[in-house]
Amino acid sequence: MKQDSMDKEDILSRFLVESKKDPEKMTDLYLRDIILNFMLAGKDSTANTLSWFFYVLCKNPLIQVKIVEEIREFIETLRLYPAVPVDGRCADADDVLPDGLHIRKGDGVYYISYAMGRMPYIWGNYAEDFRPERWLKDGIFHPESPFKFIAFHAGPRICLGKDFAYLQMKILAMALLHFFRFKLSDDTKEVTYRTMFTLHMDEGLQVRAVPRRGLVEV
Ligand code: HEM
């Protein structure tokens, strides 16, 4: 595999090329951990977001028709259902947060993306509603600061797979929505999450997929 790595463009090959420059540090074990990190960080986060995405689509059937080329629906899904609902850090040293709060070495500092995504204080009235149009200003997509839309974390350790995740979810959603219309199997059943590291949908998403005759069909 190492011999081919110069010709290939996948992520492991990129790291194999880099490892030649620093073989002491970038051992096979180190490379294994990087790939494992990518697999763990990338699988449940994207799969769960897709479940919540199809759930909000079922609740908003008109949007299903026009969604195919849009990204704001995914962003709005992640605002309400962040795949990493709680995240945090442990203080390496005594410090003072920007709001003046003193923290001591060893303290845990957590932020709750799930709550932040639903706060009227941050998102205004209707913060709990699924409104992809909130991301538009004069009809043009207007991204928010990652410190406000925190689903991918922010700063130097922001998610490395963010753009890849959007691409992957768009491809899958496009393929499925091209052929099917989705309806919740039971619209009256309350859908909720299971408390875990990622925001799993409790009992998974139960939907009916109805073949489409054409994209304009609602
Ligand atoms: C909806 C999809 C995703 C969401 C919401 C998401 C969210 C996050 C969050 C919140 C973090 C910060 C964790 C922390 O340091 O405390 C993170 C880190 C990371 N993510 Fe994602 N992620 C997604 C998809 C992906 C995908 C598809 C990949 C790769 C294929 C990926 C790769 C990574 C990596 C490597 C890190 C660690 C970055 C670092 O520590 O410097 N993620 N992600």
Short structural summary:
Helix content is about 40%, strand content about 15%.
Which tags fit this structure?
10 strands; binds protoporphyrin IX containing FE; two-stranded antiparallel sheet; oxidoreductase activity, acting on paired donors, with incorporation or reduction of molecular oxygen; 218 residues; alpha+beta; 7 helices; heme; monooxygenase activity; Cyt_P450_E_grp-I
3D structure, described in words:
It comes from Anisodus acutangulus. Heme binds at residue 159. Its cofactor is heme. Belongs to the cytochrome P450 family. The chain has helices spanning 11-21, 28-59, 61-66, 72-80, 113-116, 120-123, 162-179, and strands at residues 86-90, 95-96, 102-103, 108-112, 136-137, 140-141, 180-184, 193-194, 200-201, 207-211. The chain is an alpha+beta fold. The strands form five sheets. The protein has a two-stranded antiparallel ribbon. It has a two-stranded antiparallel ribbon with strand order 2-3. It starts with 10 loop residues before the first helix and ends in a 7-residue tail after the last strand. Protoporphyrin IX containing FE (HEM) binds at residues 37-38, 41-42, 45-46, 49, 78, 83-84, 87, 151-153, 157, 159-161, 164-165.
